[in-house]
Write a structure and sequence with these properties.
15 helices, nine-stranded mixed beta sheet, nine-stranded parallel beta sheet, binds zinc ion, TIM Barrel, alpha/beta, Urease, subunit C, domain 1
Length: 460
């Protein structure tokens, strides 16, 4: 039976429809969008809120959620504390988890993502093998657990099994990387195919291709992988750290993005994660290629990566999405404003986002992150809401002090520059509430399982 939702407003690509009635079928697919109720018989749910499309989290390493805050205590002030020391802590945690524990952590994380307004996540997944570094009987065992976690929480997932071959440019993998490794492109393509098979169990899942970084996979293996896989989104960590740029210069005599652009046919299916350290030519090169950048400001800030040259990139038509990466922060509003504030702080100017959207920074940030985010998931649709699409939305509470007193034109900027999780009434996926009033609908049972898992791991 159809159901009608009444909202104070629904954000369409052409602007707000206020009020708005959305009709969904039993599968949560949109059948009608109208500014008045056209049915006298359907069940109606009146929601005091403004619905916007669910946020797209284009970069996640689920297991790292369990280490949030653990790498922030530094008893020895004489030792270096940087990305590379953080990586040691991360490796130790990656080595410690069995598949059940991995799944419970991911389930908690995805439940929390839903309560923050994300409805889809791209999982950049590289912990493939058992604790001894041997293949599981089911090659994509760990990826299957991520899909199961997404299904339990109710979030859409793009599983990106990661090709991880080396310990650094021209170096054999290290002992602590043993769970990550595919020795050859053939090994990786087998893993990709097993992962694709695993997505058949959950209708809201699909796969992408992942190259961990230029330091982790050699040129010929990247070539062989890309030759086999033309239709999928391609994710790669690139130029996150200065040391990575120096190592790439030493190995290839070119900077990472420079080398990538000179060596491969980089196009709109590429999603370059971080891309922090770029010269002017590289910025133009990415923008002209149509490739996207995935930015993770809270993690990049936490790791001391650097600030992506967003304003220059955008002036050249560059496109970007956001991700929560290590999950030190899970708030999409914070990711967007940190991105903008990084530019404001370095240029001493305001409104660094706006190049269209009638000067509305809030709308611009939301639109860019959503559209590029959808592409990062392998989905080309551009309509926020349309007949025939799944009804996935996050609903802004109409009764917070700022929203209750705002005209529709100020709602998005108010949300993005002053909001947090308490600004949301809830998150809908396929026309079902997955989170309400700041909590996932199964929060208590998921938390209980998560607490047991963390207690067993003894990491916190
Ligand atoms: Zn990452």
């Amino acid at each position: 039976m159809s159901k009608i939702w009444k909202f104070d407003g629904l954000l369409l690509n052409e602007g707000w429809m206020c009020p708005c009635y959305v009709t969904t079928n039993e599968q949560g697919i949109i059948e009608e969008i109208a500014d008045k109720n056209t049915s006298s018989s359907a069940v109606i749910e009146v929601v005091s809120g403004y619905a916007i499309p669910g946020f797209q989290n284009a970069h996640s390493h689920a297991f790292q959620y369990a280490m949030s805050g653990l790498a922030e205590i530094h008893p020895d002030p004489t030792s270096a504390d940087d990305f590379w020391s953080w990586r040691e802590t991360m490796y130790n945690i990656a080595l410690s988890m069995d598949p059940d524990q991995f799944e419970h952590i991911a389930t908690m994380l995805y439940a929390e993502m839903l309560s923050h307004g994300y409805t889809h996540v791209a999982e950049f997944h590289y912990v493939h093998h058992n604790k001894d570094g041997l293949r599981y009987d089911h090659l994509a065992e760990m990826g299957t657990r991520l899909i199961a976690a997404a299904q339990t929480a109710g979030i859409g997932i793009t599983l990106i099994p990661i090709f991880y071959q080396k310990g650094g440019f021209g170096q054999a993998p290290g002992f602590k990387q043993k769970r990550f490794i595919s020795a050859t492109a053939k090994d990786y393509l087998e893993l990709l195919s097993a992962s694709e098979e695993a997505t058949k169990n959950y209708s809201r899942s699909n796969v992408g291709i992942g190259i961990h970084s230029l330091r982790a996979v050699d040129q010929y293996a990247i070539q062989a992988t890309l030759a086999e896989t033309k239709r999928l989104p391609i994710h790669i960590h690139i130029a996150e750290q200065l040391k990575e740029v120096e190592d790439c210069l030493a190995h290839y005599q070119q900077r990472p993005v420079e080398w990538l652009l000179n060596t491969f046919d980089v196009h709109s299916h590429f999603h370059l994660v971080h891309a922090t350290h770029l010269n002017k030519k590289e910025i133009s090169g990415i923008a002209q290629s149509g490739a996207h950048v995935v930015l993770c400001p809270s993690t990049e800030g936490n790791l001391g990566d650097g600030i992506f040259p967003l304003s220059t990139f955008q002036q050249q038509g560059g496109q970007w999405s956001i991700g929560t990466d290590s999950h030190i922060g899970l708030n999409p509003l914070e990711e967007l404003r940190m991105l903008d504030y990084g530019q404001r702080l370095t240029t001493h100017r305001r409104n660094q986002f706006v190049s269209y959207a009638n000067g509305d920074s809030g709308l611009f940030g939301l639109d860019m992150a959503w559209k590029a985010g959808r592409k990062a998931m392998g989905n080309q649709e551009e309509a926020y809401f349309a007949i025939g699409q799944s009804f996935d939305a996050v609903v802004i509470d109409s009764q917070t002090p700022h929203i209750a007193t705002s005209s529709p034109q100020h709602i998005l900027a108010t949300l993005i520059y002053s909001g947090d999780r308490s600004s949301f009434k809830g998150t809908l996926v396929r026309g079902i509430w997955k989170a309400k009033d700041g909590k996932h609908v199964s929060f208590d049972s998921i938390l209980s399982q998560y607490k047991k898992t963390i207690a067993k791991l003894k990491i916190r």
